[in-house]
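User: I need a structural model of PBS lyase from Caulobacter zeae for a docking pre-check later this week. Nothing fancy, just the predicted structure tokens so I can convert them on my end. Input:
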Amino acid sequence: MSSLTLIWVVALVLIGAALTWMSGLIVARFVKESRSATRAGERKLIIQALSGLLRGQTEAVSALSPFVRQPQVLAEAILDFQGLIRGADQERAMGALRSLGLIEALEERILHGSRDERLTSVEALAALGGEEVKAALRRAIRSKDANVRMAAIKGLADAGAPPTPSRLLDYVGTGELTPSRIFAEVMRQAVAGAPGEGLLALGRQDLTPLMRAVLLDALGRSGAYEAVPALAAAATDPDPDVRTAAVRGLGRLQHPAAAETLAGALADPTWTVRSAAAEAVGAAGLVRLAPTLAPLLDDPEWWVRFRAGDALGRLGKAGRGLLEAAAADDARPIAQRAAERALAEGA
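Assistant: Understood. Predicted structure tokens for PBS lyase:
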């Protein structure tokens, strides 16, 4: 075979391979779009049946029954439909789905579905509500998938039955859960419902600085004034992240008893603590700390200067007077710019 013939053969083979590959992509896309369209149509039918249920249509339950064998589609439809209804209507619709055996079907998908199917099934399960669902979610916490475990715990928290703060800390300690935004949110829900248990958990000796910070954040958001002493004590912790969380918590509680602690935090060597303290002073309206706050207009960190200026602007006449004085002081150009910005934004 001549070299020219070989080149032609190779070229034809490559062209054939490319055409085959492109044809495969086209077919795969067609199949995917077809499945998506079918799934969308099924979700529409489920939502229509749920809507019919709310209108008293007796045949609606029968229309939903076949979809119990397709729990993933039903789960997706439930999550779509849930946002459209509230109160008694939501309970009526979810009650009908529970009566069809959907809890068991979703649990099956949690055990044997793909990763996405497991997560969607947990979310849909939480949406159903009821004591049976809470029991199913507690069983889902034993899943080997950490994401499923976290979703199940979040579902319990949303249902008003979160694990205790100490139990949540245990999950992290054993490696069953990893700290995340969702974990912090669940901790806030747990502590909001039981601030006393949150304070007890704070006394544990096995807490890492990160877990102490998460717990302090939750206590600060709980609205429980009994947390003020614990937060004040944590504001002098050796770890800067813990101090920052404690000071932010004091700022959220806005209790006047925190004034002395916040005054000390304004001089903290870590800029995040100083920034949080400045914001807290403004939020709590601690006018008597205005003279202590004003020097932070010269802080080397821009964010601290910003927070100090904003806080002074919230402290009424006393704070505004200090801003005006700084804005007129040519000998302090950094403070002057920070004060001018605060005055301009507060005008």
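Before docking, keep this in mind: The chain is about 75% helix and 0% strand.
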